[in-house]
Amino acid sequence: MRIREWSPAAATAAELGAWLRSYNAGQAVDLPLDPPWQIERLKDYLTVTMPGETRLTWLAESDDQPGEILGYGRLLVMEGLGVVELNVAPAGRRRHVGEALVSVIAERALAEGLTSLGVEAIGGTPAADFYTALGFRHAYTETRSILDLSTVDWEHVAEMAEGVSHGYRIEYYPGDLPDELLPAYAEAKQVRRLDPNGDLDLRPSSYDPDRLRASLRVLQGRGLYPYIVVAVHERTEKVAALTELVVPALHPTRADQYDTTVVPEHNGYGLPRAIKARMLIELRTAEPQLRDVQTWHGSDRETLQQVNKELGFLPDREWREYEVDARDLAARLSSTKD
Ligand SMILES: CC(C)(COP(=O)(O)OP(=O)(O)OC[C@H]1O[C@@H](n2cnc3c(N)ncnc32)[C@H](O)[C@@H]1OP(=O)(O)O)[C@@H](O)C(=O)NCCC(=O)NCCS
């Protein structure tokens, strides 16, 4: 096995195809019910980054079968935060491929001046044992829930979407947000930053209009088509609640529900219920190929969980976040090499 740094931007079609086969082989074992990724927009997905974000990737390749990718490791660096991503194909597992990839990531993390690293591991897969064996500490757990759209009671969802309190109006934005809404939208998103929910914030969000605009462009550039629904408080014209979802070109039958935020002074008016229901209704015509929607939430977000339950989301798996001191990790891994 050999490990080399890889630039997806310079990748050939053959390399991208091999990467995808390796990735999907791992997913087929760990998440057999998830839709496999398609090659469509894969290069964009792997290449396009937020301003100020760096993604470094390494491939582990087989010595016996040239061109076969046993696994990849990635280090995402943004605002001093280091996030690790790893996938070893079933054929490469339990041969210390994962450990070797983490070892090069840890060395680079130190060179980049990072002090700690975070990672997400999917519950019910070998990843929890792997990260624990490498000295990572379990920091936070989220639950992934999935809504199978074939089970949705559309009449009830339509009623939910109409059930918006007096003084608020719902607006739907496919693809982008108008410039005039950006400041109010960014202000509403700020609320999540102030919410001490223990999440490691592995996916830095955008809290000012310029950054928000940039992150919407990046989503589109990566083949993640965004949909946004907001509740506007009519007296102040402020954004009282918002919900964001993307439909990835990589798996267009499954949408990813991102952030849903309610500004605290607008709690208790049924806004998350109305905006999430409206989102589903719009998707039905905008993305008729969609089969399901996945979303992640911490156990602290009770109101959202109730809304998800009413819409028909069912809990699927734990998504566990781990963290480790970068120096300790590098030291531990270099001593196991000796
Ligand atoms: C977790 C993962 C990276 C492990 O890769 P790997 O190459 O098989 O792991 P290694 O061989 O380097 O294992 C190192 C140590 O981790 C532990 N470990 C790894 N797999 C394990 C398993 N299935 N059960 C128990 N312990 C395990 C062991 O202590 C192992 O050392 P040992 O074999 O000497 O006992 C791999 O299973 C994987 O890619 N899983 C999917 C990850 C994923 O979901 N990625 C997407 C989101 S980031």
What's the layout of helices and strands?
Blueprint: E1 2-6, H1 13-30, H2 42-47, E2 54-61, E3 69-78, E4 81-88, H3 97-111, E5 116-122, H4 127-133, E6 137-148, H5 154-162, E7 168-174, H6 182-194, H7 209-221, E8 224-233, E9 238-248, E10 254-262, H8 271-286, E11 292-298, H9 302-311, E12 314-325, H10 326-337
Helix pairs in contact: 3-10, 5-8, 6-7, 8-9
Bound molecules: coenzyme A (COA).
Structure keywords:
31% strand; 338 residues; twelve-stranded mixed beta sheet; globular; alpha+beta; binds coenzyme A; 10 helices; 12 strands
Describe the 3D structure.
It is a single chain. The protein has 338 residues and is an alpha+beta fold. The protein has ten helices and twelve strands. Strands 1-2-3-4-5-12-6-11-10-9-8-7 form a twelve-stranded mixed β-sheet, sandwiched between helices. β8 (224-233) and β9 form a beta hairpin. 34% of the residues are buried. Mean pLDDT is 93; it is low at 196-204. Coenzyme A binds at residues 26, 30, 85-88, 92-99, 120, 122, 125-127, 129-130, 133.
